[in-house]
Amino acid sequence: MNTKTIKEMGWDELVIGAALYSFEGDINYNVAEVLPEDRHYSETNSKMAYVGDWRVYKPVWNSELCIDCQNCWLYCPDTSIISRDKKMVGVDYDHCKGCGICVEVCPTNPKSLLMFAEQEKNEEALTQWPQKTKGE
Amino acid sequence: MNKKIMELDTVEVWDGNMAAAQAFRQADIDVVAAYPITPSTPTVENYAGFHANGFIDGEFVMVESEHAAMSACVGAAAAGGRVATATSSQGFALMIEVLYQASGMRLPITLMQVNRALAAPLNVNGDHSDMYLGRDSGWINICSFSPQEVYDMTLCSFKIGEHLDVRLPVIVNQDGFMCSHTAQNVNVLDDKTACDFVGAYKAVNSMLDFSKPVTHGVQTEENWHFEHKAKQHSALMGSTKVIDEVFAEFEQLTGRKYNRVETYKLEDAEVVIVALGTTYESAQIAADQMRNEGIKAGIIAPRVIRPFPLEELASALQNVKAIACMDRSAPGGTVGMLFNEVSGALFNTPARPVMSNIIYGLGGRDMTIAILCDIYRELDKDAKSGKRNGPLQRFVGVRGPELGFYNV
Amino acid sequence: MSNQKEIKNLKSFSTAAERFEGAHVLCPGCAHSIIVREILNATNDNLVVSAATGCLEVCTAIYPHTSWDCSWIHIGFENASTAVAGAESMHKALKRKGRLDPNQKDPKFVAFGGDGATYDIGFQWISGCFERGHDMMYVCLDNEVYANTGGQRSSSTPIGASATTSPAGSTSYGEKKNKKDMLAIMAAHGAPYVAQVAPNKWKDMVKKIQTGFATEGPVFINAMSACTTEWKFPMHKTVEASDLAVDSLVFPLYEIINGTELNITYRPKNVIPVRDYLAFQPRFKHLFKPQYEYIIDEWQKRVDAKWDYLQRREEARV
Question: How many Cα atoms within 13 Å fall on the side-chain side of residue C155?
Answer without folding.
Answer: 10
